[in-house]
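S1.2 Input.
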Amino acid sequence: MGNIRKPKKIKKRKNRGLYLAILIVILYFGSRMTPLLNASAQNTCVIEYGKIENSIESVGFIAREEKILTTINNGDVKYFVSEGERVAKGQKLAEIYLEQLDERSRKDLEAINLRLQNIKGKQDGQDFFKADVEKLDKQISTLTKLIQQDLREEKYERIADYKEELKGLLDKKSIIAGEKSFSGKNVVQLEQQKSQLENKVNSSVQTIYSDSSGFVALGSDGFEELLNYKLLHEITGKQFKLLKDSNLDLSPEETQKEKLAIRIIKNHKWSVVVEIDAEQGEGIEKGKNVRIRTAGQNKELEAVVRNVTDEEDKKIVIFDLDEFIADFYNIRTMAVEIVLSQHEGAIVPNSSIIEKEGVKGVYTVDIGGVLNFKPVKTQISNKEFSILYDGSFEQESRDDPNRVEQIKTINLYDEIVINADKVKEGKRIR
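S1.3 Output.
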């Protein structure tokens, strides 16, 4: 009997079914390939809530309500207050020792004062210094015993110090008792000599007092008068150029070395004066409220436009502020961002907005990947983005100019096409 090969025919039928299934899959994906390729070429984004600012960046010069009390050209300075400390009018701030004071003159002045008090006390029948003399006698006696004890024990290392201290105590007792120095002079002579010594001592020391209440600042850059808070509105283009050409970027330490001075800053009111392009400054008007953001700080400061001066194709603008900032006392230049206005809402890239038959709109993507044109209305734009009304907006009716109609528009979290000029309404992108 020959071999039967019927299973071979069954295998051929199975292969035929497999080829047919593969062909169907290929045809199906082929029909979907074009939309998928289109989808890969189209970038989309989701509409989110964002913010657009109308702002100007510039470098400003700082003005304060301040006054230089004194400049220090020579001599040693002793400060009685710290920088930034608030002081009252008439408070002692510093002593400047203009020259080396004769120590003998100071001691003589002290001795005359003691002698005058002693004489006047005795004239009134009183002895103000009896207790002082008794106290001095005890100190002299104690010191004498210590000297004698050290000599007996041959401890000579402290003898010189004891001797000097003993001499001082004996001199003081002699002065009080009128036995030494000015004993032969009457009160009138002592008063005259006292006056002469006081003049000599006072001419060697300059004492600085505050002439108003305020905050103490040290050092000077020489622009305190030009950049004065009260006079700043008079600044001219030439003066502003002088500021730009000057080295005003010194650190506080360098400023103090540049010119030693003591200043009083009356309060925390200050101004920023900037120069901007005339075109940029079109929306800036006297009395307008703006916000200023300083370099390196996220904090926004409230400011008021004090004055605007036109200078050819530029504008000089002065902003007044009263909020405290760090190192307020010494800053003279500051990089600032002037925020003229802020708008918040549904933010989209400008490339997503297209005009169709005179109507501005965007292409939204529905759940099936089909594009739909939706009209939009812009609140504000910059070079890259626009803030749109969401939900609906009002516009004048095309059919009746006297009627206002409500137009449905985009919503937050709608998906839109970024490059609107590359697609058409009704197309499927996925």
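S1.4 Remarks. Helices lie at 7-41, 103-123, 130-152, 159-177, 187-204, 237-245, 252-258.
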